[in-house]
Amino acid sequence: MALGSAAAPGQRRRRAWAVVAGVVLAGISLGLASAWLALRNPWSSAPSVTAGAWRTSLLAGSADADPHTRARVALGGLLALSRDETLYFVAERDDDGAPLRSRCSYHVEGQPPLARWWSVTAYADDFFLFDHPAQRYSLNSGTARLDAARRFALVTGPAPADAVTHWLPTPGDRGLMLVLRLYNPDPALVAAPATLVPPSIRRTGDCAP
Fold first, then answer.
1. For the whole prediction, is pTM greater than 0.70?
2. What is the CB-side half-sphere exposure of residue 54 using CA atoms within 13 A?
3. In this structure, are 72 and 131 located in the same domain?
4. Gap between the Cα atoms of 6 and 154, Å rounded
């Protein structure tokens, strides 16, 4: 009887330590997960400005960038060059404010931005290009066909009925991110990124099942 009564407090202590260890591990896991998500998202806390549905960081590529921003750049690899060399605008929502989804079709249209060279690239929500046999990942100033009004256009999602339209396939059902890169942008745009004339992003039709 004495042995049993001595064992009970020991078991209670072990259970208490197990609970404490579980709480600590859960806290560490949540902390690491939130830190990882924050680093993977280049816009989570860095100061930024918007132009339509597009947003650009004011610190990416800057000598004034804080350690967190530098870590995001190192992990994402999307915002690596200095602002004098390149401006990066990212869109994760359409013009109506709805999150972009890969299974939906979007019509993106605008005037060529003031830069020596520019491109619009479609990324999945893991910051990687979409895997598709067509290997059509972006539209740029060299491949864009301008209309009579000197505007470019592209569509994302399922293949469009109009074969003339530039198409960026985005298979699957996941988040979609569009990145507008401006290489050697106009100095006035570097000084005031919010003055960008933003390409429109409009969902067309129903989303694929």
1. yes
2. 25
3. yes
4. 76
Return the number of other C-beta atoms located less than 10 Å from residue 50's C-beta: 14
In the numeric block, the tokens 């299974």 are attached to 103
Model confidence pLDDT, tens digit, residues 127-179? 899 999 999 999 999 999 999 999 999 999 998 887 778 999 999 999 999 99
105 and 160 in contact (C-beta within 8 Å)?
A: yes
Q: Which residues span the domain enclosing 142? A: 47-203
20 and 83 inside one domain: no
196 token code pair: 């960008």
Among 9, 25, 40, the domain boundary falls at: 40
Q: Is the pLDDT of residue 29 over 50?
A: no
How many other C-beta atoms are found inside a 10 Å radius of the C-beta of residue 63? 6
Measured distance CA(116)–CA(174) in Å, rounded = 33
Task: Say whether both 56 and 112 belong to one domain.
Answer: yes
Q: Does the structure show a pLDDT above 60 at 192?
A: yes
CATH number of the domain within which 114 lies: 2.60.120.600
Residue 32 shares a structural domain with residue 83: no
